[in-house]
UniProtKB/TrEMBL annotation, chains A, B:
The keyword Transmembrane helix applies. One of its GO terms (cellular component) is membrane. The chain crosses the membrane at residues 68-87, 99-118, 124-141, 148-167, 179-198, 210-231. It is a multi-pass membrane protein. It is found in: Membrane. Belongs to the aromatic acid exporter (TC 2.A.85) family. Keywords: Ion channel, Ion transport, Membrane, Transmembrane, Transmembrane helix, Transport. It comes from the Eukaryota. The keyword Chloroplast does not apply. It comes from Ficus carica (Common fig). Residues 402-423 are annotated as: Disordered. This is Aluminum-activated malate transporter 10. One of its GO terms (biological process) is malate transport. InterPro entries: ALMT.
Length: 495, 495
């Protein structure tokens, strides 16, 4: 049986061999070709992706050079720190200490001065606190003998690390000391695991402190004196730009509705019309800028402790106004069109309300931009209110328009009604978009009043001075140009 | 002249002395008392502040225990790492290496699993890349002689640090590799300033790598297996909760308008009415959750690469709907009140539109919650559309209401008009809030259709299965309870 099996296996084996070789031989050139083609496609694909990436990077850098400048500032700070330690080999040469300075620079340097200062101060405070606490706990633990030392250190580490991490969620800590809490945990853990000798303690502390100070100083100097980007200035620019956008959107939407909805015009001015969308989504950035701005020293025309939080309030009121413009934009694009006759009748007064409203917003923009109390704002608000009143009066007079004029001859009353319905009376359905527009315009005007009071509060807290007439006209164009140049491109990105 | 001056000075000096002492002596007891009082006030103040702070912390911890749990997880991870190095003194004992593991834990550990994974993977990738590149540049620089070494290293550091920092602003890098870019800069700078010997290079690399892996592993394990908070689950919960809130707000607003505006009822259900405000401000958190969720492995009912970005789209459509509810809420609170007769006439149909609309949103909520395609959504949408049609028809029938019924006797036409105006015809002004409400309801219904198509797209991409009837009813209550428990408290904070 065995030889038979052997023979059978041999046979089988021989068959399999020929089988395999035939299978392998036939498509042998296929895979290699495929592989080569695949590699070629991969290389071309990678090359295309890379060139695409570089193109995008170049576009970004040219549209907002400040981002490229920030990159170079970080490079400069790091090179400065490392050269400082190359040239002056302090203490134990280029080693552990230089590392801390470099780490400080990498972790602390931010694009915005306020953010850098916030991190620097948090880091210094937290390092000092955690260092002192850590050393204290360490000494305490050492006195309780070898056995309990690790236990005590472990428990202390757990308690302090948990507590500090949890404290980051408490709103008052979160807005000012979140980074400090992280640094506290880091420093405390490092001190608690390091096995230092008490006699070398002060040397160590002094070295660590000096390196952190070197790193921090270089960061602060470069961040503040080479093309600085101030959070306060950014917040201020965002608010004033958004005011312009809001005003232009409002004007544009209403004008577009009454001018007849030509596709061409709409597309041309799409950017202006949709400017309010920036206001809708600016909450997070405004709040973080206000948080950073509080760490910044006096700069430009802002003193230390300028009431930045009030700008956030102004921004919130603007957003509430932008919601209404969103709804307005929606109802303008709805399918129901009001009859032209009715549109014409209300067109002038609606345009007046919208231009008066946007005039108020623009004036508020000037108040915030020039930081001078406006002499004309009360007048403009009064004008806006009276336009709203006129609009309401005009609408009140509408029933006489809807009710058919009584015919001179007295015919069959039934006939009269039919005729009136078919020719004279616009259905309420047709009137709805127009009436919604007016209703939203009235609501927008009342929300603009809330922006006015927020800005007036800002003017009081920040002690804006009353404006003298010739100054406003002189200042306005300059500020406008500077503002627009700064923000125009970023806005494009955001929209 | 000199002695005279001397004398004069002496005299002056004496006078000043007496002057000063008299000034100091008179209120001497005052300042001490004041000081003591001040110190007392300070201590009491500090104590009050501290107790207030602790109270707030306690409230936060009890309202959202997950935050306290996160704190403890960080404590646990740090203690674990430090004990690991205490117990097994690897390589050169507890020293430089343990430091890197601790640092990794502190920097990488986040409350959300996706964020931890994102940071871990970024850190490992960036460390590896920067390390290899740094060593390469170092070796190259060493070959060009002592003189040029520092120069080459400095230039390389500047170029790579600038480039990597700038790359953080490029959108595609920002959303996935921002943290990696920071780590790259850090590692590259550390390698370029360290003065290593080539023969020890691989030892060093191996040690550094092993410590980072230990730190990273501990982070990932603790983050994923002890009370994990998944970004995907959070995003999913936010979206489904927001759908409920949107539906309730819409229902509540319309119901409140037609039920008559009693102050008591309004205040009681204020929370429900203003639920839509959560939707207005959830953009940033939804986007960051979606970014983190893509790093997460399969968890719960979500597989790896679940289409998280589609949830963001659904969220955006919901926000566009919330803007309209904002405007609706504004126009409901406006001063013009529609006459009761007119309100009553439209009340039923408006309530029907709103309840149908909110029904659609609630059904969408169930679709997303159960991850099953709904069998009734098409029917519900049809119902909503037909209710909108009915509303439009009802409004179209309104002119007959406004136009006075022709009087039976034919009197003076002038008289008829006056009478009609004063008694029968509600002025358009009075009708405006009601008409705006209907118009916004119609707009909201059309925006809800956009949410429907976004959810349907999600159901297609994520391959939701059709629902079987008994399953829905079984699953619904469970999910609801779990969802509500998770998010209810956080919502309270946010509102």
């Amino acid at each position: 049986m065995a030889p038979e099996q052997e023979a059978a296996r041999g046979w089988e084996w021989r068959i399999r061999v020929s089988d395999v070789s035939s299978k392998v031989l036939a498509p042998k050139e296929g895979p290699i070709c495929k592989l080569l083609l695949g590699v070629k496609a991969l290389i071309v694909g990678l090359f295309l992706k890379l060139s695409n990436f570089l193109k995008k990077a170049w576009e970004l850098a040219s549209s907002d050079p400040r981002k490229a400048v920030h990159g170079m500032k970080v490079g400069l700070a790091l090179t400065a720190v490392s050269l400082f330690y190359y040239i002056r080999p302090l203490y134990d040469g280029v080693g552990g200490n230089a590392m801390w300075a470099v780490m400080t620079v990498v972790v602390v340097f931010e694009g915005i001065v306020g953010a850098t200062l916030y991190k620097c101060l948090n880091r210094m405070l937290a390092t000092f606190l955690a260092g002192a606490l850590g050393v204290g706990v360490h000494l305490l633990a050492k006195q309780s003998g070898e056995k309990f030392e690790h236990l005590i250190m472990g428990v202390a580490l757990f308690i302090f690390a948990s507590g500090a991490t949890f404290s980051r969620f408490i709103p008052s800590v979160k807005s000012r000391f979140e980074y400090g809490a992280t640094t506290f945990v880091l420093t405390f853990s490092l001190v608690s695991i390091s096995d230092f000798r008490v006699d070398k303690l002060f040397d160590l502390a002094q070295q660590r402190l000096s390196t952190i100070i070197v790193g921090t100083l270089i960061c602060i100097l470069i961040s503040m004196f080479i093309c600085p980007i101030w959070a306060g200035q950014e917040l201020y620019t965002t608010i004033t730009n958004n005011m312009d956008k809001l005003a232009n959107s409002l004007d544009g939407c209403v004008a577009e509705y009454f001018s007849g909805n030509e596709e061409g015009t709409r597309k041309g001015s799409e950017k202006t019309l949709l400017g309010y969308k920036c206001v809708l989504s600016s909450k997070a950035s405004e709040e973080s800028m206000a948080n950073f701005a509080r760490w910044e020293p006096a700069h430009g025309r802002f003193h230390f402790r300028h009431p930045w939080q009030q700008y956030v309030k102004v921004g919130a009121e603007m957003r509430s106004c932008a919601y209404c413009i969103e709804a307005l934009n929606g109802c303008i694009n709805s399918e129901n069109k009001a009859p032209d006759r009715l549109k014409k009748r209300l067109s002038n007064i609606c345009l007046e309300v919208s231009s008066n409203s946007s005039g108020v917003i623009k004036e508020l923009g000037i108040v915030v931009t020039t930081m001078k109390k406006s002499s004309s704002i009360d007048f403009l608000v009064k004008q806006m209110k009276s336009a709203v009143q006129d609009l309401q009066t005009d609408i009140k007079s509408l029933p006489s328009l809807i009710i058919p004029q009584p015919l001179p001859e007295t015919g069959n009353p039934q006939d009269k009604k039919t005729e009136a319905n078919s020719t004279e009376v616009p259905s309420v359905m047709e009137m709805i978009p127009l009436l919604t527009l007016t209703s939203l315009l009235i609501e927008i005007a009342s929300r603009i009043e809330r922006i006015v009071s927020a800005v007036e509060e800002l003017a009081d807290i920040a002690q804006f001075q009353p404006v003298t007439d010739e100054k406003t006209t002189e200042l306005k164009p300059d500020y406008k140009i500077a503002k627009d140049q700064n923000k125009e491109d970023e806005t494009l990105q955001r929209v």
